[in-house]
Design brief:
Layout (H helix, E strand, L loop, with lengths): L4 H12 L5 H8 L3 H13 L18 E9 L4 H9 L4 E7 L3 E8 L2 H12 L4 E8 L20 E2 L6 E2 L4 E5 L2 E5 L2 H17 L1
Antiparallel strand pairs: 1-3, 1-4, 2-3, 5-6, 7-8
Length: 199
């Protein structure tokens, strides 16, 4: 699903400074404040904007950063990565090729890292790991590259399949829900109504 030029400009401005008000963005782009609000809400609903947070420099707080490459069998990849992601000191988790997991870990002192490595050793599905200390930061930036013709690959709300084609949009209780086909739309509506009744 291709984003329009105004969506791209809004994302670019928010990535520069997430504290910008809707009014400031509207003024800079020469559009109305309600238009900005509506577009940002749509981008949030699609999962393009995951949240807003302060960019805090861990080095200035005296924190230590480590990078780990963890190896396990392909069948254990998801379970192991989800378990590691629950640890409060694990900042980033990526699946890599060859059944490896990339971790970025921040600690207040080296002893905390020793405890973390002991926890790691207790996970029997992990076959090996390499650990590196980060000794300097040359560049650290959000991963998303905002440029013209960027497309959003939405996940179907029902079957979780990635959608490259335009999605089927369902308006339920004032929110837009995205599904990949009419079959998923039908099943999703039933599931949605069941969940509403339970609540």
């Amino acid at each position: 699903m291709e984003l329009d030029k105004m969506d791209i400009k809004i994302l670019s401005l928010l990535q520069e400074d997430a504290r910008r008000s809707f009014r400031d963005i509207a003024k800079e782009l020469d559009i109305s404040t309600p238009t900005v609000s509506s577009k940002i809400s749509a981008l949030e609903e699609m999962g393009v904007i995951r949240g807003y947070r302060a960019d805090i420099d861990a080095d200035s707080l005296g924190e230590l950063t480590y990078v780990l490459i963890v190896k396990c069998s392909p069948s254990d990849l998801q379970e192991v990565s989800e378990r590691l992601a629950t640890h409060e000191n694990v900042m980033e988790v990526f699946h890599l090729s060859n059944s490896r997991i990339f971790l970025k870990v921040c600690m207040l002192n080296p002893l905390d890292m020793n405890n973390f490595l002991s926890d790691l050793a207790s996970i029997k599905e992990i076959t090996e790991y390499d650990q590196y200390s980060v000794i300097g930061t040359v560049k650290e930036h959000p991963r998303a590259i905002i440029q013209d013709n960027v497309c959003v690959i939405l996940k179907c709300y029902y079957c979780s399949k990635g959608m490259k084609d335009p999605p089927v949009k369902l308006k339920l209780d004032g929110k837009t829900h995205y599904v990949c086909c009419n079959t998923c739309a039908k099943h999703y509506k039933i599931k949605y109504e069941e969940l509403k009744r339970k609540v």
